[in-house]
Protein: Regulatory helix-turn-helix LysR family protein
Amino acid sequence: MSHRNYDLPSLIALEVFEASARHLSIELAASELNVTAEEISRQMKVIEDELGVPLFVRPGTGVALTSAGKDLYNKLASVFSEASDVVTAIKRGGHARMSRLSQPTHSSRSG
Structure:
């Protein structure tokens, strides 16, 4: 199997971003992920620096998403949800069924 190099921030940074964006709170994201609020802030800075755009604004208490942050959050929430569904199905023994459903079919021409 060949390795594809995805141009993405680390999965940890994406997970921190998703939790922070979903809660709109550094403290709630930190609690959910069992890390300090300082680590959440550090990871948020890492992902913003890597992307070169702000994803959050910090108006007083809490955080709000920028336009870029909203775009990234909406896509990540969908992708994380789909990945979670696949993992749950595999854990329940549904991987064989999923594999059969995802394999392409080829029809032969007669003639």
Observations:
- The radius of gyration is 19 Å.
- The longest helix spans residues 67-91.
- The chain has one domain: 11-90.
- The CA atoms of residues 90 and 99 lie 10 Å apart.
